[in-house]
Amino acid sequence: MLTVYKLASHVERDAAREAGVAIVKQIEFPMLSTLLCPLFQAADEEHLEADVHFGGADLTKCFELAEKILPKIDCARRTHLTCELVPGVVGPKMSASLEESILDPLDGGKALKNRLKKAFCEPGNVADNPPLAFTKAIIFPLLVGQPFLIPRAEKHGGEISIPDAATAEKSFAEEQLHPGDLKLGVESFFNDYLEPVRAEFALEDAQKMFLAAFPPPEKKGKAAKSQKKPPAKS
């Protein structure tokens, strides 16, 4: 907390509010805790001894503030990298604070299928379409020029091959690409691409490291039955 207090002495209220504009709900009379959020982001960099801080594009203003104020308390200025934000499975963006919105890389099979089933994917709608956004921001860049293959059953017309993101968007806008097929393709790609990650994570050493970093909460024992005290003698 001392680092946060030191940083606070170099940041005006409006600067703190502006830095958190994309990550904190904006209201007319903000709580003090929301103004401190960007300062905690900066303090984390120092206490984690980070060289590089990677985050979504919504953290850009926080990163800019950190670069400005950390040197003022004799802390190193860190390198910052940002990535494009993708919409959540539900909700405006994928966020760890809303579990239903994320696609966990370790989820496979039925878990991944169930998450994608919840994704909004209206026929012809390319403006608000999480599965289509996943193809543009994640899948096609990873394919590096290779086509996006959708393993549709022969009885439904057979495999679909889409060469690029623009074709995928055009096909969906014209309702030539069905929402069910698009979700199937996204599910198939993520399962194939992430299988080595899941296999590595299942190894004993990886499990030990994970449990050391994120120990499970202790199970609470059964609450002791309350016993009535005998009435006090007069």
TrEMBL record:
UniProt-listed Enzyme Commission number(s): 6.1.1.1
Name of the top EC class for this enzyme: ligase
GO biological process: tyrosyl-tRNA aminoacylation
Keyword terms of this UniProt record: Aminoacyl-tRNA synthetase, ATP-binding, Ligase, Nucleotide-binding, Protein biosynthesis
Gene Ontology cellular component annotations, sorted alphabetically: cytoplasm
InterPro entries: aa-tRNA-synth_Ic (IPR002305), Rossmann-like_a/b/a_fold (IPR014729), Tyr-tRNA_synthase (IPR050489)
Catalytic activity: tRNA(Tyr) + L-tyrosine + ATP = L-tyrosyl-tRNA(Tyr) + AMP + diphosphate + H(+)
Skewed-composition ranges (Basic residues): 222-234
Molecular functions per Gene Ontology: ATP binding; tyrosine-tRNA ligase activity
Signal peptide: none
Residue segments, region Disordered: 214-234
Family of the protein in this entry: Belongs to the class-I aminoacyl-tRNA synthetase family.
Protein name in UniProt: tyrosine--tRNA ligase
Organism this protein belongs to: Plectus sambesii
